Amino acid sequence: MEKKRLKKIGSETGVRCTSVRIIKRYKLDSPDCTGGKTERTTPPDRATEEMEKKRLKKIGSETGVRCKRTTPPDRATEEMEKKRLKKIGSETGVRCTSIPKIALTPVLFFNFRSVAGGANGIFTRRLDFSSFNALPKNKLNSYQIKTEDEGNHGNDDTRCFILSTLASQGRSRVHCVLCEDQLLVFDRYPLVDGTFFLSPRQHAKSCIEVKVEGRTQFLSVVCMGCLEGASGRAIRCRFCNQHWDGTSLVLGTMYSYDIFAAMPCCTERIKCNACYKPVLHPSQRLNFFSDYSHMVPCPHCRTLDTHFVKPLSFCYARLPLRSLQMWP
Ligand SMILES: [Zn+2]
Ligand SMILES: [Zn+2]
Ligand SMILES: [Zn+2]
């Protein structure tokens, strides 16, 4: 029953839940994210070992990740680079499978052990969950707030992707695309007091360009207050007047699609960006939330575009609507 329920939630939210726990049970000092402690199995000769130690120490001081053993860096091709990262990952416990384009040279890692403001660990260590106290009590669970890595040993792909992308830009803070408030980024889940998402459109200057599976995307953030429609932050569709509701989105993690495009409220939201005729029949809806972030050809003018992903200022107005104030 539990598995089915989690699967259903997963398919609806795009976030896979493996377990559900009450937040207060979450231990901040769980033994993951320690950088790994893989011991070698065969003892090499002493001279080689000494050389290796020196080299690793150098790499460690450059990347902020202490390695027991690794392979010599080779940045000739991306393929080689990927293999090296995979190997480093298996030995250090910091696995980077999604490599942001910008992070390839030099390879940047982050030190999970550092507390806020360190030279390498630029991300903040969350000391408690008090920032979520504004939420209704029934939302303080791991359905609504992502608290744990997928899998063991701090190898979570999403977290690694977000932190390495931000680290490569030297950014420990992000900005909400709606209210522009500054948000701290934390080194563990929940990564932010809001949620990250990927969009094919750059909603704000602060959104970082990334390549995901060959497609150009922008790493974007919405804060908790805007998701919850807190006073003065609620937004409505400028065409049908419907309130945009982000309360069902899981906090502290990342959606791989544009969360504003995912639930088109009216015909204006499904029109072609070139000829302004509806790309879908008014009653037609796509199967998955992520389908609305993909390139589709317009059936009328054949223009290939992410037609459902519109500029936020075009779609939304802040409350109260009577003043007809455009967002922001
Ligand atoms: Zn906001
Ligand atoms: Zn609408
Ligand atoms: Zn068209």
TrEMBL record:
Coiled coil: none annotated. Residues 118-312 form the Headcase middle domain. Residues 29-54 are annotated as: Disordered. Residues 37-53 have a biased composition (Basic and acidic residues). This is Headcase protein. It comes from Popillia japonica.
